[in-house]
Amino acid sequence: MERAGVRVLFPSAEPIAYRGSTTTAWYDRTELPPTAAEETTSVENSVGRLVVGGFSQGGGIALQLAYRGSPLGERPLGGALCAPP
User: Fold this and answer.
1) Could you tell me which of 73, 77, 41, 49 has the C-alpha nearest to residue 61?
2) What Gene3D superfamilies does its record include (predicted)?
């Protein structure tokens, strides 16, 4: 895929205490306030080239980003793949 100019990344969340055990999760949904600040700057420059995907919480984040497009609404996301748990 590198020859085609495609780079594939599979990020994984760090293990955290979550619902009584330690597991990989991006955030603890029971502890994250609705008013928490969002990080948008890091994706703005290349959002049209991004295809995001995820499973469970990651799928929810990917789906939310796909629906919203660019965090500033100016450019569409390249695509999204989502899988429920």
Assistant:
1) 77
2) alpha/beta hydrolase
Extract the runs of DSSP E, i.e. beta strands, from 1-85.
Answer: 15-18, 21-24, 51-55, 79-83
The helix/strand/coil state of 22 is strand
| Phi and psi angles of residue 69, each rounded to the nearest 5 degrees, phi first | 70, -145
3-class secondary structure, 68: helix
List 15's β-bridge partners, or say none.
24
Nearest by Cα to 36 from 44, 24, 27, 23: 27
d(CA 81, CA 59): 7
Q: What is the pLDDT of residues 46-79, one digit of tens each?
A: 667 778 888 888 888 888 877 776 555 566 777 7
* Max Cα–Cα distance, the chain, nearest Å: 45
How do residues 3-17 score in pLDDT, each as one tens digit?
Answer: 677 777 777 788 988
